[in-house]
Amino acid sequence: MKPVLLVIAHGSRDPRHAATVHALVRRVRSLRPDVRVETGFLDFNIPSVPGVLESLAAEGVRDVVALPLLLTRAFHAKADIPAVLRDAPPQLRIRQAEVLGPSPLLLSALERRLYEAGLTPADKSSTGVVLASAGSTDPEAIAVIADIAREWRHTGWCAVRPAFASAALPRTEDAVRELRALGCAKVAVAPYVLAPGFLPDRIARGAAEADVLAEVLGPAPEVARVLLRRYESASARSLLRVSA
User: Where is the secretion signal located (predicted)?
Assistant: First the structure.
């Protein structure tokens, strides 16, 4: 039998967050009906990750792929999630998948959201884009966002600048003003976040002077495909922990 895919989301007091996570999981299930997909939250929402793991163990499940629903490999992927998984019932054999980003598919999803917000491919050469992420205190995560912005610039946009809603600079509004100063005819903000919530709302406020604000990535089909690729890669790797 294929390992159970456990999608691990951070959780939020904002009900839009959990609703978006569940919508993405439904899309994943529709793409791979042969894989059992469960959802667990680290905080604020239910079911909790420990609760899901206990339930799976009680059912007799043995193999699980735990997939962090994260775009960068920062504190949650490096510390929080491994700690939770180490406390799982000992009969579970668990593999932790890689985070979703970076991936060319996620760039495709970002462009999809920009076009849905009103841009067209003909606008690319005259439009500057702010790649707006939640932000992190982890230098590796910040560097990844900067790398993605540089890569995306080479696909034809006038310019692409990274921005952060917390923990790092520049803020979205500062990046918007920089692109205006560069002479871009239009400025668009592309939130590099998976679900609505406090920090995405801050990004939206920072986009007040932009011409276009895209929606969050949410349950975009490209995101679901990346998620399944990470699942397949993890399924083929050695176990994080093997029970005695």
Answer: none
Q: Omega before 170 cis (within 30°)?
A: yes
In CATH, what class is 104-213? alpha beta
The CB-side HSE value for 57 (13 A sphere, CA atoms) comes to 16
C-alpha closest to that of 111 among 202, 179, 211, 192: 192
User: What is the CATH T-level fold of the domain 4-101+221-235, as seen in this structure?
Assistant: Rossmann fold (3.40.50)
pLDDT tens digits, one per residue of 178-212: 999 999 999 999 999 999 999 999 999 999 999 99
Domain limits, CATH 3.40.50.1400, in the chain: 4-101+221-235, 104-213
The model's pTM is 0.94
193 and 131 in contact (C-beta within 8 Å)?
no
